[in-house]
Amino acid sequence: MALRIDATDRKILAALQADAAQSLDDIAKAVGSSKTPVWNRIRKLREAGVIGQQTVILDAEKLGFEACFFVLIRTSEHDKDWQARFLKALKSRPEVQEAHRLAGDIDYILKVRVKNARAYDSFYQALISEVKVHNVTALLSMEEIKSTVALPL
């Protein structure tokens, strides 16, 4: 049976997306309920997999990661062995914040966060030494205009 998400659940999820570190009292107050029913709803949402890993968002620039590259990858390889090596290479690299397999002319897009262009080149050289790719295009983000992980509930 699928979990039914109602308006109160959505309010709880919105509150958690805004600040997962806020107290249960604050969340209950924001949704117009008491702590125990809110806690039970949060527990059910976790158990159903609606709420996943909780973490903190760090300021990349303040930590010295000033360059964000979007890397477009085309490959002429599509067999299972190549894909396994490619996925292993991506998952082992902390610079890769996101990776998506695409429909269309480009096979993959990566979001890569590094300290500078030299660090990106090191990442690139290491990646192509592990897996063969047909074409790589790196696009440097000049300005981050919007970034969020919040869903539009």
TrEMBL record:
InterPro entries: AsnC-type_HTH_dom, Dimeric_a/b-barrel, Tscrpt_reg_AsnC-like, Tscrpt_reg_AsnC/Lrp_C, Tscrpt_reg_HTH_AsnC-type_CS, WH-like_DNA-bd_sf, WH_DNA-bd_sf. Keywords: DNA-binding, Transcription, Transcription regulation. Residues 5-66 form the HTH asnC-type domain. SUPFAM superfamilies: Dimeric alpha+beta barrel (SSF54909), Winged helix' DNA-binding domain (SSF46785). GO terms for molecular function: sequence-specific DNA binding. GO terms for biological process: response to amino acid. SMART domains: HTH_ASNC (SM00344). It comes from the Bacteria. GO terms for cellular component: cytosol. This is Leucine-responsive regulatory protein.
